[in-house]
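re: ur question from the group chat, yeah i did fold both. here u go
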Amino acid sequence: MTLPGDWRAWRERVDLDQYDERWRQMEATGQNVHGEADLVMSYEPTSVLDAGCGTGRVGIELARRGVEVIGTDLDGDLLARAIAKAPDLVWVQGDLAGLELGRQFDVVVLAGNVVPFIAADRRAQAVAACAHHLVPGGRLIAGFSLQAGWPGVADYDEWCAAAGLVLEERWATWDRVPIGADGSYVVSVHARAVGTPPTS
C-alpha cells in the first residue's frame, strides 16, 4: 500500500523507537498522555474504532478502560508495533477511505493528525467511511493541526456534513480548552443523527 506524501515525510524523519519512548517518558514524569482516551471516555462508549491507530497508544488505553476496540492503520510498520504491544486486540491494516469492517461503533476516533495525513483526494471518502461505521447517535471525534497546505475546519465540516454528520462540540485541545485566537489545533465532535442511514 502506498503511503500519502505528508505521511511518508513524517515517517522519514521520525524514529519509531524514539517516538514510543517519548510517550513512555512523558507518562513516567507524571504527564497525562491519554487526553484523547479521556475525551472519548466522557461519551461512555462500549465500542470504539481507533482509525489511524498508529502504534496503538490510544486504542490500547481505551481497551484498558474496558472498551471494545478495533484499531486500523495503513502503515504496516506502526501496526506491527500495536500488535506487539496488545496482541489480544483486533488490528486491521487498510486504507481508511475504503474501510469496510461490516459493523458499527459508538465512537470512531481520529487522533493525532490522521485527517491531514490521508491523501488529499481521499479525505472526503475517509470521513464518509468513518460515518458509515457509526451507530445512530454515534460520534466521530477527530483532532488535527491547522497549518498551511493541510485541511481547515471548513473543509472538514464539509466532509462531515456530506457524510450525514452534525457538529456537536469543538475545542482547541483534547482536554477541552476553548478555541483561541492562535487556531493551531482543533478537536471536533460530530454525531450521526438517529434515523440517519449510514453512508456508503
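okk and heres the other one u asked abt
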Amino acid sequence: MKHAKIFGMLVLLSLIAGIELAAAAESPNDDKPKSAKPVAKTANLTVAVLNFTANDPANPKMGEEIAAALTAMLSGESGVTLVERESIMQTLREHELNLTGLVNDEQAVKVGKLVGAKIMITGRAFRLGKDMFITAKLIGTETSLIEGVMVKDAANADLSAMVVQLSEKLAGKVRQVGPKLIASDDGVDPLPALKKKLADRRKPVVSVIVREQHHAEPRAAVVVAVIDPAVETEIKKVLAECGFTVQDVPQNELTDFASGWTAKNVDSWPRDMAKVDVLIAGEAFSEFATRIGNIVSCSARAEINVVNRKDGKIALADRVTVRAADLSENIAGKKALQSAGRAMAIRLLEHFAETLPEEI
C-alpha cells in the first residue's frame, strides 16, 4: 500500500509538473532571445527512460517508480516523444539485460538503437550519510555523448518532491543540450548556412534518380506496401529549396539510362536531359530490423553517384545508413529512407558549396 500510494502521488505530481513545464516553455518572459535557439531544437527527440538503480530495502521498486514517474512527466514536453516503457522492458528481457537499471552506457546505447530512441535516460538513487541523491544521465545513442543532472535532499525527504525536481532539471537539460546529443552538426541544422553559402553561386541543372525497394519482415502478418521514392523526393526537395533547377525526366527512361550508363557515352544522355548539367543517380533500400512490443524499427541505406555531363566523370560517390522506428513497418521504412535522403542532400550541398565557383 505504501508503494502504491507513493507511486500514485508521483503520477499526480507528474501531470501537474507536465502542465507547469509546458506553460513555462511557452512563457513570453523567456530571457533567451528566440533567434538564439538552434534550428534543430524544433526537431522531434525520441527519448527512452530506463529503470533507475536503487538499493533501498524499504522500497525495492524505487528505481522502477522513478522511471515511470519521469516518463509521465517528460511526456508533456513539446518536441519530445517517449518510448513506451513496456517496449523497453521487452527489449531488456529479450537481450537478457539488467531489468533493475543499466549502469553500462554501451548497453544503454544498444537498447536505445533497438527501440529507435535518440536519447536514453538512466540513473541511480542512493543514500550517502544523511543525504539522499538521485543522479540521471542523458546518453546520445548516435553520438555516445553524455550529460548529467543530480538532485539532493535529506535522507528522510519526500521522494516524490525529489523526482519532480529531477524531472524539471531533465526537461531543461533536454531542451538545452538534447539536439547536441544526436548526430547533427552540434545541434544546428546545417541547411540554412549552406543555403546562404550557395545563394550567389551559379547552380547547375540537375536530374535525380534513386531506385528504392523495401525488404519486409520475414513472415509478416500483413503485406508491406511498396515505398515510394522517399530518398529521391527528399533530395529534390532540398535542392529546390536551395535554388537548384531540378529537371524531371520520365522515370523509366532515366532508370534505364542510369543503369546502363558508362563514362564513354556522355553524348547519349536522353533527349529530355538536354539541359541537364549534373546527374545524381543511385540506389536505396530499407529493411525490417526488429520489432519490440508495438514499435517497429527499420534500417535504410542510400548510395549515390554525382556525374558531370561535361566530362562524364564521377564528381562524388557517397553513402549513408540510418535507422528509424514507428508503430508500423511502412512508416518506419519510409522515415528511415527520408532521413537517409536528407543526410545525402546535405552532403550534396556541401559538395556543391566546395566546388561551384562564386559569381563575379
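fwiw on the second one: The longest helix spans residues 329-355. The two ends are 78 Å apart (CA to CA). idk if thats what u expected
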